[in-house]
Amino acid sequence: QVQLVESGGGLVQPGGSLTLSCVASPFTLDHYTIGWFRQVPGKEREGISSISQYYDDDTYYSDSVKGRFAISKNSRDNTVWLQMNSLEPEDTAVYYCAAVRDWTIVAGSATSLVDSWGPGTQVTVSS
Questions:
Q1: In the chain, which ranges are continuous DSSP H helix?
Q2: In b/e form, how buried is each residue of 16-45, taking b as 16+ CB within 10 angstroms?
Q3: Are 20 and 8 in contact (CB under 8 A)?
Q4: What are the tens digits of pLDDT across the range 3-59?
Q5: Mean pLDDT confidence for 81-87
Q6: How far apart are CA 59 and CA 66, in angstroms?
């Protein structure tokens, strides 16, 4: 089975930064694109970023986060990272990592096609 565990959420002031991590097995990282989604209560779950299992520079960012967030991987800890900078209150959400078959699932927020979800981590941006 594919298991994902994200962490790193918390409370941050506007303009601040947080880094989220998503730990997965080597098999998962080798065979799935890893995406990040976020969800505000009452809203649709939104795909915001992904990174290819083949090329570390093959990444996707939604318009809402591009230029502020950066996705990366490291092989040492089998971890995908999401560095979030210049955070604003509208970034407040539960953030989920996900294993998907290709990046278009993330870009299209096609949540029904996600193979596996992490349990989520809360990010709150507030003064």
A1: 26-31, 103-107
A2: eebebbbbbeeebbeebbbbbbbbeeeeeb
A3: yes
A4: 899 999 999 999 999 999 999 988 898 899 999 999 999 999 999 999 999 999 999
A5: 98
A6: 11
In angstroms, rounded to a whole number, what is the distance separating the alpha carbons of residues 64 and 52? 20
Given a contact cutoff of 8 angstroms between Cβ atoms, the answer to whether 123 and 95 are in contact is yes
Name, in order, each residue with C-beta under 8 angstroms of 63's C-beta and a sequence gap of 6 or more.
none
**Whole-angstrom distance, CA of residue 91 vs CA of residue 76:** 29
Question: From CA 67, how far away is CA 84, in angstroms rounded?
Answer: 10
Give me the residue label for tokens 């991987």.
Answer: 73
Residue with tokens 């601040």: 16
Helix (H, G, I), strand (E, B) or coil at 91: helix
3-class secondary structure, 111: helix
Residues 6+ apart with CB under 8 A from 17: 83, 84, 85, 86, 87
